[in-house]
């Protein structure tokens, strides 16, 4: 069983680690785009082209499924990716976990990139799934880029900026960018709402990918293939600053 994960950068580590925990036997292909990262400031058309390039490089590895492990790419490119690769390769997108976060009708804060915050896509999800919850959109400028480069000072500054704009009454926090799941412990420590429940996407996306394949478990450990803007590469050194990256070191590369 071989599954690819596509993202601009290290945000895909969360879903990759979730897949590794669920299926140690799966062969995983990481296809990210350090040459074009970050995708957020690009136009929707440009984001789509970069996502397609990463997806095509991954598809050359005879995949059983493809995960778009990026909220921004899922917003802008998922339709094009599915049109090109399905039904031969199921394509699973990443959607902010607004529905489960709003289920209890509390105060929901959605942390996302500036490009996603206030977008028609996110506003549509809020309208569809927000229910009786009080929903606040919180832009997090620079956080994804700081996580990508494991810049601790920049991570702390970006988290502090967003935390200051998050209501103290928040009951549920949606991590609306896959990069943010790599630093959820630091986000929790910075919030004025220490009891807030966190809602990421990695576990749900991994489970959905495995449901689409429904392949039996096989003996042995799966391999890890890394592609950087289409080129064979190694896992970025910055990945080792996060537990998800350390987990993947156990794979055969």
TrEMBL record:
Residues annotated as transmembrane: none
Alphabetized InterPro entries for the sequence: Asp/Glu/hydantoin_racemase, Asp/Glu_race, Asp/Glu_racemase_AS_1
Q: A biological process (GO) annotation for this entry?
A: peptidoglycan biosynthetic process
Q: What class of enzyme is it?
A: isomerase
Q: Return the SUPFAM superfamilies for the record.
A: Aspartate/glutamate racemase
Source species: Kitasatospora cheerisanensis KCTC 2395
User: What's the protein called, per UniProt?
Assistant: Glutamate racemase
Higher taxonomy: Bacteria, Bacillati, Actinomycetota, Actinomycetes, Kitasatosporales
**Which Pfam families does its entry note?**
Asp_Glu_race
């Amino acid at each position: 069983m071989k599954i690819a994960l596509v993202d601009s950068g290290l945000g895909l580590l969360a879903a990759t680690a979730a897949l590794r925990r669920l299926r140690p036997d799966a062969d995983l292909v990481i296809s990210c785009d350090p040459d074009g990262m970050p995708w957020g400031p690009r136009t929707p058309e440009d984001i789509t082209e970069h996502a397609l390039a990463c997806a095509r490089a991954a598809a050359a590895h005879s995949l059983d499924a493809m995960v778009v492990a990026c909220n921004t790419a899922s917003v802008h490119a998922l339709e094009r990716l599915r049109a090109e690769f399905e039904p031969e390769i199921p394509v699973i997108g990443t959607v902010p976990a607004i529905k489960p976060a709003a289920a209890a009708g509390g105060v929901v804060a959605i942390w996302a990139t500036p490009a996603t915050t206030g977008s028609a896509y996110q506003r549509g999800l809020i309208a569809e799934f927000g229910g009786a919850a009080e929903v606040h959109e919180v832009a997090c400028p620079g956080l994804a880029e700081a996580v990508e480069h494991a810049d601790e000072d920049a991570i702390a500054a970006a988290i502090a900026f967003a935390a200051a704009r998050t209501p103290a009454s928040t009951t549920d926090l949606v991590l609306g960018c896959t990069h943010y799941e790599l630093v959820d412990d630091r986000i929790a420590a910075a919030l004025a709402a220490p009891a807030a429940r966190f809602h990421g996407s990695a576990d749900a996306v991994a489970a959905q990918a495995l449901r689409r394949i429904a392949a039996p478990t096989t003996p042995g450990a799966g391999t890890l293939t890394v592609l950087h803007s289409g080129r064979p590469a190694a896992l970025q050194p910055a990945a080792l600053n996060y537990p998800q990256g350390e987990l993947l070191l156990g794979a055969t590369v």
